């Protein structure tokens, strides 16, 4: 038995949360999920770890961005965040209490490679060994993302994602980490939401590194796709049992008006958002968005990239929150040649979450069925789904977040429907295990199942949604 099997076996000996009795199980059968469904929750390194300069960690673009006045709501930073770097055992206790079957987290690249190249930082590595062992001991499968947006600042200083060399750096990092942690971790994703970190980081400037350069942004998307495929190969070469995929955020694109022009714009934007970071790996080519005669130059495509960019991904992670509305914009004001759209995130006619995102569960089903057409028989996991609701503790220190329960119940219902329609969905990860640093919104938006007392002692308190989700997991279905 290797270390991972040993830890999982001892976790299996723990008392399980009570499941439903036989009568209840019968009436709930129609809401049951497939046996072995991987119920999970997710976090990401910069959003929870803190310890931003501990034990030799180098600065990331998010350290630099958050330390720049005016970038983050209320001047917040991830310097401390949930302090998971020191309190990961408390996180593991939440995992155990929920009965999670899978815990998705990310590795901080600059904690492991402070300058983005060269040998791994032993102390950083030691942290991820301890964290992973705690996750395994809590009974959950580690599901680990290599890159969730915290690029080493040293690599940004050399051009960042628009610089093609960043793909080679990512592959080096992937290989070293795969060799060092492959005894504990099987399930890997190379990237989290390449659409968001390239769009917001290099095109819109709202996220680190805060650049607004549409042409550099297009090159960044190509480097990310090369990095995915090269990182995939490096991980597999380093660890024979690694199952490697990637995580994409996807959304239905709704035409602003029911006109042929807006419908065509929505279809274009769908190719650019939902497929741009999967089709190159799976087919060796980009979906048609850019003018064909300029595509290679705009992306920095070189001969041979059609081979280099391919990766037969073992699984695909999809994140879903809300929908977009898209209008045709022949003026091309967004700066991306051929895209010709105006697009708004989170908009629509439905009720909103506390951060203003439209609640549209039906769109989840629609996009899952749509993406299945591209990903085929590959297992899909929902790697993120959840909602921001900012309820505070009441006098008895209870957090009554019933809107989050409604959100999750309705979205899980759509996942269940997609499974019944034949989409091979193997797991679901709630975003997030606990409240954390919500990027440009700082600590103003709470997505957690557990409340974190950011202004006090950083204690984690299960919300009503936590207890509800624990019961869903215990009965393997919606009640
Ligand atoms: O917090 C983020 C996460 O890092 C990536 N997906 C969306 C979440 C909510 O905005």
Can you describe this structure?
Strand 12 (450-452) and strand 13 form a beta hairpin. This protein has helices spanning 3-12, 22-27, 45-48, 61-66, 84-98, 109-112, 122-137, 153-157, 165-181, 194-203, 214-238, 260-275, 279-283, 295-299, 305-308, 361-375, 402-420, 464-475; strands spanning 38-42, 102-106, 141-147, 187-192, 243-249, 253-255, 315-319, 324-328, 341-345, 380-385, 425-431, 450-452, 460-462. It is globular. The two termini are 37 Å apart. The protein is an alpha/beta fold. It has a single domain (3-475), classed as TIM Barrel (Alpha-Beta Barrel), CATH 3.20.20.80. The strands form three sheets. Strands 1-2-3-4-5-7-10-11 form an eight-stranded parallel beta barrel, surrounded by five helices. Strands 6-8-9 form a three-stranded mixed beta sheet, with helices on one face. A two-stranded antiparallel ribbon has the order 12-13. Helix 5 runs parallel beside helix 7 (122-137). The chain is built from 18 helices and 13 strands. The structure holds 5-hydroxymethyl-3,4-dihydroxypiperidine. 5-hydroxymethyl-3,4-dihydroxypiperidine (IFM) is lined by residues 44, 47, 193, 319, 384, 431, 438, 447. The site of 5-hydroxymethyl-3,4-dihydroxypiperidine has 8 residues, from loops.
């Amino acid at each position: 038995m290797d270390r991972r099997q040993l830890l999982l076996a001892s976790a299996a000996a723990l008392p399980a949360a009570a499941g439903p009795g036989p009568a209840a199980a019968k009436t709930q059968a129609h809401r049951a999920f497939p046996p072995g469904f991987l119920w999970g929750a997710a976090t990401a390194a910069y959003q929870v770890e803190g310890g931003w300069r501990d034990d030799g960690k180098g600065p990331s673009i998010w350290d630099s961005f958050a330390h720049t006045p005016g970038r983050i709501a209320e001047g917040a930073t991830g310097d401390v965040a949930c302090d998971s770097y020191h309190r990961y055992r408390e996180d593991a206790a939440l995992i155990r209490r929920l009965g999670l079957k899978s815990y998705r987290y990310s590795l901080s690249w600059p904690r492991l490679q402070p300058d983005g190249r060269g040998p791994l930082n032993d102390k950083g590595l030691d942290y991820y060994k301890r964290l992973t062992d705690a996750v395994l001991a809590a009974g959950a499968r580690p599901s680990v993302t290599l890159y969730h947006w915290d690029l080493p600042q040293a690599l940004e200083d050399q051009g960042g994602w628009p610089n093609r060399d960043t793909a080679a750096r990512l592959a080096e990092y992937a290989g070293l980490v795969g060799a060092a942690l492959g005894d504990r971790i099987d399930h890997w994703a190379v990237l989290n939401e390449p659409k968001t970190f390239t769009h917001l980081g290099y095109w819109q400037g709202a996220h680190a590194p805060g650049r607004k350069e549409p042409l550099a942004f297009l090159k960044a998307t190509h480097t990310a796709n090369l990095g995915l495929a090269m990182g995939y190969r490096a991980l597999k070469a380093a660890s024979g049992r690694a199952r490697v995929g990637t995580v994409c955020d996807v959304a239905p694109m709704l035409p602003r008006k029911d006109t042929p022009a807006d419908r065509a714009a929505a279809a274009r934007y769908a190719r650019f958002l939902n497929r741009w970071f999967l089709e190159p790996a799976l087919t060796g080519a980009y979906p048609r968005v850019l003018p064909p005669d300029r595509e290679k130059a705009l992306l920095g495509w070189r001969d041979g990239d059609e081979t280099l960019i391919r990766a037969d991904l073992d699984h695909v992670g999809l994140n879903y929150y809300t929908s977009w509305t898209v209008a045709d914009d022949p003026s091309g004001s967004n700066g991306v040649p051929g895209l010709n759209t105006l697009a708004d995130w989170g908009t629509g006619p439905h009720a909103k979450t506390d951060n203003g995102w439209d609640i549209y569960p039906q769109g989840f089903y629609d996009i899952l069925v749509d993406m299945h057409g591209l990903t085929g028989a590959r297992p899909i996991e929902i790697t993120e789904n959840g909602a921001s609701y900012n309820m505070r503790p009441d006098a008895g220190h209870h957090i009554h977040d019933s809107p989050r329960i409604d959100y999750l119940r309705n979205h899980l219902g759509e996942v269940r429907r997609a499974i019944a329609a034949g989409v091979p969905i193997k797991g679901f990860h709630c975003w997030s295990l606990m409240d954390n640093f919500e990027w440009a919104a700082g600590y103003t938006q709470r997505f957690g199942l557990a409340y974190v007392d950011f202004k006090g002692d950083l204690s984690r308190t299960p919300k009503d949604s936590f207890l509800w989700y624990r019961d869903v997991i215990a009965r393997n279905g919606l009640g």
